[in-house]
Amino acid sequence: MAFQIWAIFKLLVLFLKELVVSTIAVVRQIIRPRLLVRPGIFAYQTELETDWEVTLLACLITLTPGTLTLEVSNDQRTLYIHAMDIQDVEQLSKQIKGTFERAIMEVTRS
């Protein structure tokens, strides 16, 4: 039980960190005299299995400035995400997998 509370706390702190970092990135783009973004939509393959896990991931992505979950496939393995600035889809996917997805698994699979 204590481990799960710690995992929930870590997920909350991670989300707050990502919220601040992405907010700063969005504000930087807004105040620039010339917009230098490459918006786009990409398919993200997840290892999460339950409805709750996938829903939580989709919500965390949507609540983070600059990204929005548009759709979840019927098999719940693919999320279609719109990002304000996509430099490298693979790097963005690794970031989501290494942060939100990993933290969600720590909470739900402990």
TrEMBL record:
Organism, scientific name: Paenibacillus eucommiae
Q: Which InterPro entries match?
A: Cation_antiport_E (IPR002758)
Membrane-spanning intervals of the chain? 6-27
Keyword annotations for this protein, in alphabetical order, are: Antiport, Cell membrane, Membrane, Transmembrane, Transmembrane helix, Transport
Q: Which top-rank group of organisms is this from?
A: Bacteria
The similarity comment for this entry is: Belongs to the CPA3 antiporters (TC 2.A.63) subunit E family.
Q: What membrane topology is annotated for this entry?
A: Multi-pass membrane protein
Keyword flag Transmembrane helix: yes
According to UniProt, the name of this protein is: Multisubunit Na+/H+ antiporter MnhE subunit
Question: Is Metal-binding set as a keyword in this record?
Answer: no
Cite the Pfam families for this sequence. Answer: MNHE
Q: Where does this polypeptide localize? A: Cell membrane
